[in-house]
Amino acid sequence: MWKEDVIDLKLSRFFEQSARVLLSLLIIAILAAILAGVLYTFYDLRLIMEMDFHGAFRTILVDVLTVLSIVEVLRTALAYFTEGRVKVTYIIDTVIVTVLTEVMAFWYRDMEWQELAMVISLVLSLALVRIIAVRFSPRSHRAEL
Asked: Is the pLDDT of residue 68 over 60?
């Protein structure tokens, strides 16, 4: 019985160390993607002179919001790295930022009212889930006990 516990402990440590190494590589890749997104956004500033302002600003706005959604992914990865678990609120924040990026892109398109209603209901449901996740988080339950 004791030998099985030692094997389980070694496997658990191996898994944790492997996960940390892979997560470190993922964080480096995310940082590189953020850097590339920022550089691409600055590169797109040339569109102000080449296109109409409306189209150029739409492109730049979508670039900036995409970088911000990648920053939210980085925040989720760092939370897992430091706390050993993924916070649901960080994931929901990431999805909300990504969906809002799409909503900003929708402003420049003609949309059917059904599509708009679906997007609004998605954002509202994500906001509701975010509120519920904060209200019923394990940390708040520990504080109440």
From this structure: yes
Three-state DSSP class for residue 53? helix
Q: Whole-structure pTM over 0.85, yes or no?
A: no
Return the closest-CA partner of residue 133 out of 86, 100, 98: 86
55 vs 108: CA distance, rounded Å:
8
Look up residue 34 and give its two tokens: 């953020």
How far, rounded to the nearest angstrom, does the alpha carbon of residue 134 sit from its chain's CA centroid?
Answer: 17
* 39-75 burial code (b ≥16 CB/10 A, e <16): eebeebeebeeeeeeeebebbbbbbbbbbbbbbbbbb
